[in-house]
Amino acid sequence: MGQAVRERLIVVGNGMAGLRLVDEVIKRCPQRFMITVIGAEPEPAYNRVLLSTLLAGEIGAADVALKSRSWYAANRITLITGESVRVVDPCRKCVYLGSGQALSFDRLVLATGSEPFRLPISGCDLDGVIAFRTMADVERMRVSTGRARPAVVIGGGLLGIEAAYGLARAGVPVTLIHLMDRLMERQLDSEAARRLKAALEGRGIAVKLDAKTEMIEGSRWVDGVRLSDGTLVPCSAVVMAAGIVPNSALAKHAGLETGRGVKVDDQLRTSVPEVYALGECAEHRGICYGLVEPAYDQARILSAVLVGEVASYQGSVLATNLKVSGVPVFSVGDFEGQGAEKIVLNDEGTHAYRKLVIRDDRLVGAVLFGDTGDALWYRDLIASGASIKAVRPQLSFGRAYAEAA
Fold it and tell me: Is the separation of the CB atoms in 6 and 32 below 8 Å?
């Protein structure tokens, strides 16, 4: 008998989600597919989590790389970089590249990620206004802030803090502007956010809260940022880090059902047969996850689905991990815990802060600042829904104490 014809699998997007999916598929069933991966960036997939460290000059570009081109070749994967998909035609089962090339598929996976949200304000199109999503953005930031010229970062979420920290580590005077009354309000309670602000200020970053950006001033190049209260913050670069938007335009134009992102079911299938989506572009049960771990969870499930196994994605427990100025910060689940029982551990000697949220003898949320050694244990307890009744007295002291007891 002849060898079975391999199905043609095209993955649009060569970010962390797309690469993890391909890696998982190869491990499960290496001969199942003829795989083509298409990435808009010139480089093969790299670790975006390390971009702030790259910006700081603490690592080089080689340290950010995830897989070399030779890895793709060795696994018989066709890798196309520096090329975007212009049109997806599900009826003809074909994708058309910007160059005009047409590629046919049996299965198609959209891993198109997200785009930075740019504030629609005057001056947003000036030279020196930069996003923070790619290695090219890092290079633009270096050019714009050369000779330690000052920068403004708009957005006090995870991305904005990473950008501000990277710039500060590189010797750039930075002002971080945030619309809300505390940093990372979606991930941290007020006490952890207060400590994070102090840590950033300890690195020389000026933090302005409750600050609305009115406009960006300059003729051709950025001169400064004007706030709604009239304050002018002089700078030569503005980093927009006010959020991300799922990149679902390609799917929408192809007739796939979209909401905020590309809508998928528990098998990561879109509304069109043989077309799937995962990562930041996907919307599952009304949620678009903008973090790496949920994308990896989805890649594991989708790889199983693609090779014919029974698998179902039930959503991910949201966790945020950050390290600023040597201070680790972690949050997971319902960290605010309105109306729930809370255990708070505040160690002024080590500057560690820990808040655990409990409902019905189950851990449902946690915030850790300064000492995050037990972060994964708390995350697993939340994900499992296991009763913590037996270890409740020792819970705030961590896994080692709880297991010893």
Answer: yes
